[in-house]
């Protein structure tokens, strides 16, 4: 874990190690998505169909039903429609829309497409405020505790699905992501043919992002204590599959952020401005918490040894005090300089759920 402290020192070099590799691979992935055939099934309730391609080393001549059920055991749930019935109804198709039969042999790189069956979901009655919309971009001022994309139990209530259904823009996709618990500026691409150009801006680190966070530093925190002081945070962060939280490892840095103390509020609350230069999962939350300044409303990285603050600082319903304040970049399609700013306010109670989820 490293830090460089100064005043207004905003242009230190990138951390050594993997961010550039991460950006390059992200750009390649965006180009691969752009070159795929269109999905053989239409959207349903704003949701894209599921695509599964059998791996190159898959056994040959496995019955289609067996292969699909082995990969997605939930399809055999007694509460779900019988999988054999779904095959018989022509609901499982290949990349060109031809229906698979349950006993059809499948092998390496064959594709199977289908729609997921959704459980009942309570969708929060919270307004989605659109900051900007033109023929290229839709920019949302995302509320706290709304997932960016369908994930886990947050499907129909995710920002993407709600916006698709509200606007009729079936090709709408997020150009980047915000944690479910983080509020603020979230940009979506409207035209599929432009998606890769926008996503590669994020992959190459050519987007300026500024966040705000309200924290409660403990005595001895290594973060700035004088307003106006700027510090660069460098860490090696890892989040393993299946684990809720990320970890800081003593390895070469792969995550970098700039933090500036904006204000010292009452009772020791510090409001920081943050400029991430990389995009690791939970990067800002973990970098602050690991330096003794967890964010108020934090459900994953609040230290176990610290009691929660009094209700006047952490009232019931207080959402995570992290806001994506601004997003700025040169538009790769129009050439104009874009800047979008959230109107959200930290310190306001909301309908935040403190469930253990990313």
Describe the structure.
With 358 residues, the chain is an alpha+beta fold. 16% of the residues lie in helices and 25% in strands. Strands 1, 6, 7, 8, 9, 10, 11, 12, 13, 14, 15 and 16 form a 12-stranded mixed β-sheet that branches. A hairpin with a 3-residue loop joins β6 (129-133) and β7. α1 runs antiparallel to α5. The two termini are 23 Å apart. Residues 7-23 and 350-358 have low confidence and may be disordered.
Brief summary:
The protein is α+β, with helices and mostly antiparallel strands and 358 residues long. It contains six helices and 16 strands. Strands 1, 6, 7, 8, 9, 10, 11, 12, 13, 14, 15 and 16 form a twelve-stranded mixed β-sheet that branches. A two-stranded antiparallel sheet has the order 2-5. Strands 3-4 form a two-stranded antiparallel ribbon.
């Amino acid at each position: 874990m490293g830090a460089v402290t100064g005043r207004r020192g905003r242009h230190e070099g990138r951390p050594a190690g993997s961010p550039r590799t991460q950006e390059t691979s992200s750009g390649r992935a965006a180009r691969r998505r752009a070159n795929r055939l269109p999905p053989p099934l239409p959207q349903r309730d704003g949701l894209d169909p599921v695509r599964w391609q059998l791996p190159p080393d898959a056994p040959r001549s496995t019955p289609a039903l067996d292969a699909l059920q082995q990969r997605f055991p939930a399809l055999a749930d007694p509460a779900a429609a019988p999988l054999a019935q779904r095959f018989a109804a022509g609901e499982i198709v290949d990349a060109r829309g031809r229906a698979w039969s349950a006993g059809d042999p499948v092998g390496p790189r064959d594709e199977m497409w289908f729609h997921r069956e959704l459980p009942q979901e309570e969708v929060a009655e919270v307004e989605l405020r659109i900051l900007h919309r033109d023929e290229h971009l839709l920019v949302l001022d995302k509320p706290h505790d709304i997932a960016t994309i369908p994930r886990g139990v947050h499907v129909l209530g995710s920002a993407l699905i709600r916006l698709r259904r509200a606007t009729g823009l079936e090709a709408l996709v997020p150009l980047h992501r915000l944690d479910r618990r983080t509020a603020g500026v979230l940009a979506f691409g409207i035209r599929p043919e432009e998606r890769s150009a926008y996503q590669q801006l994020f992959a190459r680190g050519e987007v300026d992002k500024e966040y705000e966070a309200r924290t409660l530093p403990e005595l001895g925190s290594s973060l700035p204590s004088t307003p106006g002081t700027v510090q660069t945070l460098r860490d090696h962060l890892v989040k393993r599959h299946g684990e809720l939280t990320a970890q800081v490892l003593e390895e070469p840095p792969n995550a970098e952020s700039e933090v500036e103390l904006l204000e010292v509020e009452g009772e020791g609350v510090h409001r920081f401005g943050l400029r991430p230069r990389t995009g690791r999962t939970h990067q800002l939350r973990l970098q602050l918490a690991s330096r003794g300044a967890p964010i108020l409303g934090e459900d994953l990285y609040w230290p176990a040894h610290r009691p929660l603050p009094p209700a006047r600082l952490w009232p019931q319903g207080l959402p995570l005090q992290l806001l994506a304040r601004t997003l700025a970049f040169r538009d790769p399609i129009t050439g104009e300089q874009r800047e979008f700013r959230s109107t959200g306010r930290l310190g306001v109670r909301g309908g935040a759920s403190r469930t253990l989820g990313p």
